[in-house]
Design a protein that fits this description.
With 441 residues, the protein is an alpha/beta fold. The protein folds into two domains: 104 residues, Urease, subunit C, domain 1 (Roll); 295 residues, Metal-dependent hydrolases (TIM Barrel), CATH 3.20.20.140. Helix content is 38%, strand content 22%. Strands 1, 2, 3, 4, 5, 17, 18, 19 and 20 form a nine-stranded mixed β-sheet that branches. Strands 10-8-7-6-16 form a five-stranded parallel β-sheet, with helices on both faces. It is globular. It binds zinc ion.
Length: 441
């Protein structure tokens, strides 16, 4: 199948950072050609006049399993948020509720221009998440959440070490590389607080053996950092580094409460840090030292985290906040729009391990492409001359007109082709009722 996007303003994110008035031709799942006046007899033509054509946006820290719980865990700090609300809710999922939670998340993400995610599953029924991302068509890296330690972990989520590992390996063998390499597997220990040292050591060994990424959280909350220091005898990031986990295959969400030595370790080990500004503010966790990390050459990308700690999965909101919240402490020149847009494109591509395939509009790369309308009132005057400013400071998720993933049009004129939206909303409501009937808050 061929798709020809005509007359758009292409924000390429290529090495020259070209912004071009040009056409873009997709053949199969790759970008075939970028240039003026491209003609094709057989292609589906999309007119992008007055619109920005951008690389599909990438969120490198998401919890699809929590989408159903949006609005059910407001105004709590992390450890209470987990213990009182999120863990009991996750533990009450059934296969179907997890499927619809994940599909609901995919619909929101695609409608907001996010075409790739790095996700953390929950402990049980992880298969349902893979089924949902297969149906939705989004590009995915994620896996079963592993938890085998900690007095506060509810019985419904407490796994044993052997089962956490064997189930993960089983899912890895069945899903990694599926859907023409659109779906990949990551080991997902939740965070050091809920993982035994034995489990983390084994994950490190398996990650090296299979070349599989590890996706986890670290140093989000002061209580979490204190707990690790007390139980494992060192600061959180240094502990992960001691286990051999800090490298370019590690995706580490948050990294807020880190000292200078930890910053150095993260930058030098090329660990992928995920900045989640909305979630960090809402859980009163703090503000990650992102400008300092970037200055030291660290790899940084963006994520909305979970729906109950945000409460949106909107990359435009994360870009805007990432650009704004550091300025009072670091000056108006910190986190400029172009740099923030890079975190949501090339930064995410690096984190997901696909920098040669996605993150920019270049001939030969995979066709993950998003079209953003800049004719709305909040975008006026709508000159595309300052495209990064439009995208980071003004654009909203609802400005996304079309989303193409792996050469397939998943959303056009704001309608998703892979999902029956009305049925999804009704199934999600029924699923939530079922989950809530299993627990008492
Ligand atoms: Zn998270």
């Amino acid at each position: 199948m061929s798709i020809l996007i005509k007359n758009g303003t292409l924000v390429t994110m290529n090495p020259q950072r070209d912004i071009l008035q040009a056409d873009l031709l997709i053949e199969g799942n790759r970008i075939q050609k970028i240039g003026k006046n491209i003609m094709s007899e057989s292609a589906t033509v999309i007119d992008a006049s007055g619109k920005l054509v951008i690389p599909g946006l990438i969120q490198s820290h998401i919890h699809l399993c929590q989408v159903l719980f949006r609005g059910l865990a407001d105004d709590l700090e992390l450890l209470d948020w987990l213990r009182l609300r999120i863990w009991p809710l996750e533990g009450a999922h059934d296969e179907e509720s997890l499927f619809y939670s994940s599909l609901l998340g995919c619909a929101e993400l695609l409608r907001g221009g996010t075409t790739s995610i790095i996700d953390m599953g929950t402990v049980h029924h992880t298969e349902s998440i893979f089924e949902a991302v297969k149906r939705a068509g989004i590009r995915y890296l994620g896996g079963k959440c592993m938890m085998d330690y900690g007095a506060e972990v509810p019985a419904s989520l407490m796994d044993n070490t052997d089962n956490a590992l064997s189930e993960s390996l089983d899912l890895l063998s069945r899903w990694d590389g599926k859907e023409d390499n659109r779906i990949h597997y990551a080991f997902c220990p939740r965070f050091a607080v809920s993982c035994s040292e034995e489990l983390l050591q084994e994950i490190q060994r398996l990650s090296c053996e299979y070349h599989i990424p590890v996706h986890t959280h670290a140093s989000e909350n002061l209580g979490e950092v204190a707990l690790i220091e007390k139980e494992r005898g060192m600061r959180n990031v240094l502990y992960l580094n001691e286990l051999g986990l800090c490298n370019e295959n590690l995706i580490l969400a948050h990294c807020i409460h880190i000292d200078d030595e930890e910053k150095k370790v993260l930058a030098e080990s090329r660990t992928n840090i995920v900045h989640c500004p909305s979630a960090n503010l809402k859980l009163a966790s703090g503000i990650a030292p992102i400008p300092q990390l970037l200055e030291q050459g660290a790899r940084v990308s963006l994520g909305a985290d979970g729906a109950p700690c945000n409460n949106n999965l909107n990359i435009f909101m994360e870009m805007r906040l990432a650009a704004l919240i550091h300025k009072p402490f670091n000056g108006p020149l910190s986190m400029p729009a172009e740099q923030v847009f890079e975190l949501a494109t090339l930064g995410g591509a690096r984190a997901i391990g696909l920098e040669n395939d996605i993150g920019s509009l270049e001939t030969g790369k995979k066709a993950d492409v998003v079209i953003v309308d800049i004719k709305n009132w909040h975008s006026q005057p709508s000159s595309a001359a300052n495209a990064y400013s439009h995208l980071v400071y003004q654009s909203q998720a609802s400005d996304v007109d079309a989303a193409i993933v792996d050469g397939k049009i998943l959303m056009m004129n704001r309608k998703i082709s892979s999902i029956n939206e009305a049925e999804l909303k009704s199934q999600a409501e029924k699923s939530l009722k079922r989950v809530l009937s299993r627990i008492a808050f």
